[in-house]
Design brief:
Elements: H1 2-22, H2 28-39, H3 45-57, H4 62-86, E1 90-91, E2 94-95, H5 97-123, H6 127-153, H7 158-185, H8 188-212, H9 225-228, H10 234-241, H11 245-257, H12 262-275, H13 277-296, H14 303-317
Antiparallel strand pairs: 1-2
Helix pairs in contact: 1-3, 1-4, 1-14, 3-4, 3-7, 3-14, 4-5, 4-6, 4-7, 6-7, 7-8, 8-13, 8-14, 10-12, 10-13, 11-12, 13-14
Length: 320
């Protein structure tokens, strides 16, 4: 992402300093955990979307830095809580917070990060940006609960799947774009435009993640993890809706009762590949990617827009 780094590299460096200051703890344990979180931070894609949205809409200012910090604080808080819910011991090749400090501390750390984000906005009167991000957190929780509910029955239809990923995955990325645009313009219409743009990118991003589970590109997470966790992803949903009754019953039985059997999981993956589920999901992903890029094309062809195009293509065409 050379162009992205060229266009907003200086802003990202400044952001890292501001973000580090925003999470400093008030006691030794909390401060130690915050330093650990900063060291293991990811690619910071969401702050990139904040800054590029602001730059395309108008320009980056102090409000933009706070918007990026709020988004990153909320994102980090949800990851910490997710690791507790999923009992995950590793995150980004590091031990998770709950693996090192146990669940109780991890939950409190997530709450602390959430409160820091809320205070950052309230202390500067960033009420609209707080509204944008609060709606995203609400939708993320609703999406996760809907997925859990449907996983029990394995009865997710395609429209429900898109409702889940729009809320669970796309909402925070769309909030990043929306908050970035609003921070630069103070205009709700522009903010809504970028929210819809970010939503399309987020949906395509999640479909890409689904495809990794079937061994696409032979990298990324191990194949079959979603099947083992009874997650109904788009390739599997398409297969269930486009197969004969006997195969349908066979797949559902395996997912419900034999999802820890590697051979049986591979059998389901084979069914999905033969049915055209992989190709169908890939085409859907490209549709959302192209729709997002078409929205960008309504803005002048500037380095910021070109960098955003590069970022969109990167998150959707990534190899892991």
């Amino acid at each position: 992402m050379d162009l992205v780094k060229h266009v907003i590299g200086q802003e990202l460096a400044t952001f890292e300093r501001k973000f580090s200051d925003s999470v400093k703890g008030s006691n030794p344990l909390l401060d130690r955990i915050m330093r650990f979180i900063i060291r293991r931070k990811g690619k910071q894609m969401r702050p990139m979307f904040v800054f590029l949205s602001a730059k395309i809409a108008h320009s980056i200012n102090d409000n933009t830095y706070r918007a990026a910090s709020l988004i990153e604080l909320l994102h980090t808080a949800t990851l910490v809580h997710d690791d507790v819910v999923d009992n995950a011991m590793v995150r980004r090749n590091f031990f998770s917070i709950n693996a090192l400090w146990k669940n109780k501390i991890a939950v409190l750390v997530g709450d602390y990060l959430l409160s820091k984000g809320l205070l950052l906005s309230l202390e500067h009167g960033d009420y609209q940006i707080l509204h944008i991000t609060s709606r995203a957190v609400k939708e993320m929780s609703e999406g996760e609960l809907l997925q859990m509910e449907k996983a029990r029955k394995l009865d997710i239809k395609e429209e429900i799947y898109f409702e889940i990923i729009r809320a669970k995955t796309a909402s925070l990325l769309s909030a990043a774009c929306s908050a970035g645009a609003y921070s630069a313009t103070g205009d709700k219409e522009t903010s809504e435009f970028f929210r819809l743009f970010g939503e399309k990118v987020g949906i395509a991003f999640q479909i890409k993640d689904d495809l990794f589970d079937y061994g696409q590109d032979n990298v990324g997470k191990p194949t079959g993890i979603d099947i083992k966790e009874k997650k109904m992803t788009l390739p599997l949903i398409y297969t269930l809706q486009n197969t004969d009754k006997e195969t349908l019953r066979r797949i559902i039985y395996i997912v419900k009762n034999q999802n820890t059997d590697r051979q049986k999981v591979n059998e389901v993956i084979s069914y999905v590949k033969k049915s055209g589920g992989i190709e169908y999901a890939h085409n859907k992903m490209k549709e959302y990617q192209n729709e997002a890029l078409a929205m960008l094309n309504t803005y002048p062809d500037t380095p910021a827009r070109q960098a955003m195009e590069e970022l969109v293509n990167y998150v959707i065409e990534r190899k892991y």
